[in-house]
């Protein structure tokens, strides 16, 4: 009577026949490499190939079993399990091969379901068990022949994992070896930088195998495997999304292995693997975590930069064998960057202008504490270059927060013994220069009033070989305007002009020879507050940079936007 092996063993033998029978423990290296290149041979099967790492997926509370055969007694054996997303429980047991495993005999075969149930019901001899999220291994220098079963289960959540088994652990050594001291040292600590150092892997220094190091940093915790890092990074990858339990289908699409979806069940399964656009956006938003992975070659010293001050980071280093793409984790560490240097508050004096310089992306704090009681308090701010952000607080309460440019005035109702704190934040483009005045006396403004449009307009039709005519807007307040000219090269660019746009640079910084005229001007009708000026005595075909300064009652000036003009060459 002919008998059949249990289904798992039947599958193992059928697969072995298909790939011309892989013999254990000795193996055909050329055939073995060919099998490894064809991932579909082992994908989502219950067979563990000898000497290769495979990946798998577990649904929560649904155990998964893997099998492999050791044909000869006294065979070395090593099994390594790497949890990725969550802790695992796994158990390795040995089951004797049935006496009729050779397939000899006669008679009717037992039903396959009955044979499968038979092997599941046989507990076998437990060799090793583990529960946790560490990378753990079972190693034996001498193992008996038989059918080995690896059972895994995740009780927390659906998760990925990796398994590696070999009968030649001494010669394989796919995982890089750690040095005798596997700790990561923090050799330098700054406000935005951390320098790490670690001892090289003997796999690289002694065995001369190609090893590169990958540095991982995040704000949450250390990682025990590179697999866990990749699972975190790829959490929003639709390709890695698993279908619903019960479909008995791996998280990969059939199309990756050349299968077509001929039946309805396959089509249904493929639909499950395609997340909605909304879900992808939600996952992508959720995945914006401060986790970085940097593979740096064979260097064992590395400086991490662009960190946030006064922030704790966790650092991990993984040695990766570039031939096998398998990795080993050093003992992770953590460090807290230094605090940002505390800014000293600049004290503002009542009625006096203070010059303020703010670095690019920097911040400056100013404090104003009026000595006498006051009904109102005013802050006059002149942003000379790019826009800056200003915040004003009174006794800790936020009164104002906005971006400003040019000249602005802010008034607040007074409060006895109140203290005001101003925070100025520089732009991302360049440094900022400001003039700022705080006052409890509102009778006179320190800075002149400005129109909304501070451009200078040149009239092309009135341009001659020796003169140009320009116009600019004024206000209802009577102010003094001074016009200056400067001859520039024909290749003078807008970028050069922009560098001279510091509005706080007054007429006192100009040469006397550049002065054209000063005059007073205003109009009660704001729509008619326009003045013109013809600048004479210019040379034919030359370029000139024109500036208009408006000077307030307190002597402080503001410069309009510079205007580049050119006289006619032929008249």
In short:
With 571 residues, the protein is mainly beta. 13% of the residues lie in helices and 38% in strands. A hairpin with a 4-residue loop joins strand 9 (185-189) and strand 10 (194-197).
In words, what does this structure look like?
This protein has helices spanning 7-18, 29-37, 112-121, 169-172, 202-205, 226-233, 264-272, 277-286, 494-499, and strands at 52-58, 64-70, 75-83, 88-95, 125-132, 136-143, 146-153, 159-166, 185-189, 194-197, 211-218, 292-295, 301-304, 312-321, 326-329, 333-336, 346-347, 353-358, 363-368, 376-394, 397-413, 420-425, 432-439, 457-458, 468-473, 479-488, 515-521, 530-535, 543-551, 557-559, 563-566. The protein has 571 residues and is mostly beta strands. The strands form seven sheets. Strands 17, 18, 19, 20, 21, 22 and 23 form a seven-stranded mixed β-sheet that branches. Strands 11, 12, 14, 15 and 16 form a five-stranded antiparallel β-sheet that branches. Strands 26, 27, 29, 30 and 31 form a five-stranded antiparallel β-sheet that branches. A hairpin with a 2-residue loop joins strand 20 and strand 21 (397-413).
The end-to-end distance, rounded to whole angstroms, is: 119 Å
Largest sheet: 7 strands, mixed
From the alpha-carbon coordinates, what is the Rg to the nearest angstrom?
39 Å
Fraction of helical residues: 10-25%
Mean pLDDT, all residues: 79
List the helices and strands and how they pair.
Blueprint: H1 7-18, H2 29-37, E1 52-58, E2 64-70, E3 75-83, E4 88-95, H3 112-121, E5 125-132, E6 136-143, E7 146-153, E8 159-166, H4 169-172, E9 185-189, E10 194-197, H5 202-205, E11 211-218, H6 226-233, H7 264-272, H8 277-286, E12 292-295, E13 301-304, E14 312-321, E15 326-329, E16 333-336, E17 346-347, E18 353-358, E19 363-368, E20 376-394, E21 397-413, E22 420-425, E23 432-439, E24 457-458, E25 468-473, E26 479-488, H9 494-499, E27 515-521, E28 530-535, E29 543-551, E30 557-559, E31 563-566
Parallel strand pairs: 17-19
Antiparallel strand pairs: 1-8, 2-7, 3-6, 3-8, 4-5, 4-7, 9-10, 10-13, 11-12, 11-14, 14-15, 14-16, 18-23, 19-22, 20-21, 20-22, 20-23, 24-25, 25-28, 26-27, 26-29, 29-30, 29-31
């Amino acid at each position: 009577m002919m008998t059949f092996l249990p289904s798992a063993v039947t599958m193992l033998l059928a697969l072995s026949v298909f790939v011309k029978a892989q013999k254990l423990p000795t193996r055909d290296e050329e055939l073995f490499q060919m099998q490894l290149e064809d991932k579909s041979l082992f994908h989502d099967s219950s067979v563990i190939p000898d000497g290769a790492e495979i990946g798998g997926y577990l649904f929560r509370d649904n155990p998964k079993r893997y099998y492999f055969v050791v044909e000869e007694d006294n065979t070395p054996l090593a099994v390594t399990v790497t949890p990725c997303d969550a802790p695992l429980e796994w158990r390795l047991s040995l089951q004797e091969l049935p006496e009729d495993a050779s397939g000899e005999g006669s008679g009717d075969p037992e039903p396959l379901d009955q044979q499968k149930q038979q092997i599941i019901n046989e507990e076998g001899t437990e060799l090793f068990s583990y529960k946790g999220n560490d990378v753990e291994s079972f190693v034996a220098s001498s193992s008996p022949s038989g059918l080995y079963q690896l059972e895994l289960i995740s009780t927390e959540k659906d998760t990925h994992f990796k398994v590696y088994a070999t009968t030649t652990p001494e010669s394989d050594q796919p995982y890089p070896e750690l040095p005798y001291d596997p700790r990561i040292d923090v050799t330098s600590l700054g406000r935005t930088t951390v320098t790490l150092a670690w001892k090289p892997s003997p796999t690289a220094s002694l065995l001369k195998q190609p090893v590169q190091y990958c540095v991982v940093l995040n704000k949450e915790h250390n990682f025990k495997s590179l697999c866990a890092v990749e699972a975190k990074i790829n959490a929003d990858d639709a390709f890695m999304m698993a279908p619903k339990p019960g479909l008995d289908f791996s998280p990969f699409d059939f199309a990756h292995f050349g299968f077509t979806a001929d039946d309805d069940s396959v089509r249904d399964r493929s639909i499950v693997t395609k997340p909605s656009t909304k879900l992808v956006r939600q996952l992508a938003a959720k995945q914006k975590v401060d986790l970085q992975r940097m593979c740096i070659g064979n260097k064992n010293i590395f400086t991490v930069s662009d960190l946030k001050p006064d922030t704790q980071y966790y650092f991990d280093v993984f040695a990766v064998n570039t031939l096998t793409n398998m990795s080993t984790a050093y003992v992770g560490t953590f460090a807290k960057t230094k605090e940002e240097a505390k800014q000293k508050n600049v004290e503002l004096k009542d009625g006096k202008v203070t010059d303020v310089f703010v670095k690019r992306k920097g911040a400056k704090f100013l404090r104003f504490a009026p000595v006498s009681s006051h009904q109102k308090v005013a802050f006059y701010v002149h942003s000379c270059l790019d826009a800056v952000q200003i915040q004003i607080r009174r006794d800790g309460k936020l009164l104002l927060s906005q971006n400003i440019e040019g000249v602005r005035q802010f008034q607040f109702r007074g409060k006895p013994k109140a203290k005001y704190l101003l925070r100025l934040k520089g732009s991302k483009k360049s440094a900022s220069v400001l003039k700022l005045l705080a006052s409890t006396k509102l009778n006179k403004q320190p800075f002149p009033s400005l129109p909304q449009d501070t451009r200078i307009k040149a009239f092309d039709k009135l341009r001659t070989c020796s003169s140009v005519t320009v116009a600019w807007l004024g206000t209802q307040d009577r102010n003094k305007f001074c016009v200056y000219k400067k001859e520039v090269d024909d290749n003078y660019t807008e970028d050069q002009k922009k560098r001279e746009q510091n509005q706080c640079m007054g007429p006192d910084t100009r040469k006397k020879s550049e002065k054209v005229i000063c005059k007073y001007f205003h109009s009660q009708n704001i729509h008619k507050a326009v003045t013109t000026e013809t600048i004479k005595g210019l040379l034919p075909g030359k370029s000139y940079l024109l500036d208009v300064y408006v000077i307030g009652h307190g002597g402080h000036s503001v410069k309009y936007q510079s205007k580049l003009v050119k006289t006619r060459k032929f008249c």
